[in-house]
Write a structure and sequence with these properties.
Strand content: 25-35%
Number of domains: 2
Strand order of the largest sheet: 1-2-5-6
Radius of gyration: 21 Å
Helix content: 25-40%
Oligomer: single chain
CATH topology of the largest domain: Lipocalin
Number of strands: 15
Bound molecules: calcium ion
Mean pLDDT: 90
Length: 268
């Protein structure tokens, strides 16, 4: 999971300067016989975290093939964006021997938003296609969560941002793991119980801390119960929640149940 509140705070105090306008640049990554390059003709300004790149384009070169360029309009990233180290990765996401090119860009706002792009080459095709992912406040982190040698996007269910009417600071998220298969991102959360268990423990901790500090706890409880649903232990989790909450706020619990049901989580 990645987000950068610290960076956003730094950005707020940096002046925009015309001198930064000329800061074009490139970022490259090469692996498994594929070269990928992000390039931008200018930056709106330069921050300690890097330039805010304008009109970013992507070029993919597979082996001896002619380079394939996705101009800024085709890549479709909101301008300008921050490209963190690791924002461009060449990696085989599905283990078919043909690497994909993964781009993760950050809009440099207070939280929002992360955008992802995956350039992939279908079997027997001679051109790459582009898949778009709008991550929202939290981008999936590309890592091998189960040690099978293939990376997953380990992230969260972003619908819980500001969920149940709480502020972003009181938002909590259940785990969500996505796999890239045959040109599509597939929700594979159920196959990663260790990831979900960790998230469930974290969300329960957020709930307990929120109660101690008198903060809004609805989203933390909802995220905890959503994780429990993913593990098939929602009945036990609801008992725990009812026991902890007592008669304090039955309306909140009803609202959580309705929301989880609407979002496709089992509640009983
Ligand atoms: Ca592949
Ligand atoms: Ca894996």
């Amino acid at each position: 999971m990645r987000w950068f509140p610290l960076i956003a705070a730094v950005a707020a105090v940096l002046p925009a300067g015309p001198a930064a306008a000329a800061h074009g640049g490139t970022m490259r990554h090469e692996a498994l016989g594929v070269r990928a390059e992000l390039s931008w003709p200018s930056a709106t300004r330069v921050t300690p975290a890097g330039p805010l790149a304008d009109h970013v384009a992507l070029t993919v070169t597979r082996g001896a093939d002619a380079p394939q360029r996705f101009p800024a309009r085709a890549l479709g990233l909101v301008s300008p964006v921050l490209l963190e180290p690791g924002a461009l990765r060449v990696v085989d996401l599905d283990g078919d021997g043909t690497p994909e090119v993964v781009v993760t860009a950050f809009s440099y706002g207070a939280h929002c938003c992360y955008s992802g792009r995956i350039a992939w080459r279908p079997v027997a095709a001679d051109r790459d296609r582009l898949v778009r992912i709008e991550w929202g406040d939290v981008a999936g982190e590309l890592r091998d969560a189960d040690g099978d040698g293939l990376p997953e996007f380990v992230g969260v269910d972003i619908r819980f941002a500001y969920g149940l009417g709480v502020s972003y600071a009181d938002s909590a998220f259940p785990a969500r793991v996505l796999r890239f298969r045959s040109g599509r991102l597939v929700d594979a959360t159920a196959a990663y119980p260790a990831v979900v268990r960790r998230s469930m423990r974290r969300n329960w901790g957020s709930y307990r801390q929120g109660r101690r500090e008198g903060r809004a706890v609805a989203d933390a409880l909802a995220a905890y119960l959503a994780d429990a649903s993913g593990l098939g232990v929602q009945a036990a989790a609801w008992s725990r929640v009812r026991s902890a909450e007592g008669a304090r706020n039955p309306r909140m619990l009803r609202a959580i149940a309705r929301t989880l049901h609407r979002w496709g989580y089992r509640t009983a």
